[in-house]
Amino acid sequence: MKRIGILCASDTELAPFLRRIPFPQITEKAMLKFYTGQIMQLEIVAVYSGVCKVNAAIAAQLLIDIFHVEGIINAGTAGGMDESVGLFDTIIADRMIYHDVAEDILTEFHPWLEENCFHADGELLAIAKKYCETAASPVRFGTMVTGEQFIEDEKREEINKAFAPLSVDMETASAAHVCHVNAVPFLSVRTITDTAAHKGIENFERNCETASDKSAEIVLGILAQLSKETEKN
Hints:
By secondary structure, this protein is of the alpha/beta class. It has 7 helices and 10 strands. The mean pLDDT is 95. β2 and β3 form a beta hairpin. The protein has a 5-stranded mixed barrel with strand order 5-9-8-6-10, surrounded by 4 helices. Helices cover 37% and strands 29% of the residues.
């Protein structure tokens, strides 16, 4: 993999990556700006999609169709769900689930999944785990859930009981969905801005920039590991 898409929901989440791409080529499509440049030995196409599932799906499909990326990494922030997850922990998804879609929709209809979830790409996940053996910040691997709702108290217990997720956000599963049907490798890396103990929009807004920087730090470490693996091959 030498051409990687970086997909973020917001400009705050994308900003740490743009600081690493001097004088990027900018392409506008579907009211989005795509920034193309180089990080280490990899060609990067970075975009912020806007919040929610459909926006993330639009950006992911354009990264694949227009820019022909060989993999997509979703980076940014999330809410903590499991009680053991703390502020500024980073979660890397090994599986991703819609918490607001009926369980049989994606198994009985397109894309006819065997189970009601999407899985991270094995190669990217292995590279992430190798990097995280020496990462300075806390990183955990587990389930992410996605839905069109900022989770505070409402539905928290129900979602935890149904899926046992580490984190929740509004975009990850939809980007994973697009990558699945296009057979494009996908990985999601999200840093926690709010938890059951530190909940609410005010905590998200207070912690978003710091969490975005931490998520980007982990992703850049994964890209460095990927660059090494690419050079070997």
